Amino acid sequence: MNNKTLGILGLIGAPFLFIGMQLEEIYNQELAYSWFTGAWEFMYISAWLASIIALQRLKATGTSKFGKGIIWVIICTLLLAEASNVYLLIFPKDRTTLFWILDSFWPISNLIMLLVGITVVWAKVLPGWHRLVPLLVGMWFPIASLAMVILGRTSTAFIIGGVYSAVAWSLLAIVVLISKEQPANQNLNTSPLKSIPDYPVNVSS
Question: Would the keyword Membrane be found if you checked this record's keyword annotation (predicted)?
Answer without folding.
Answer: yes
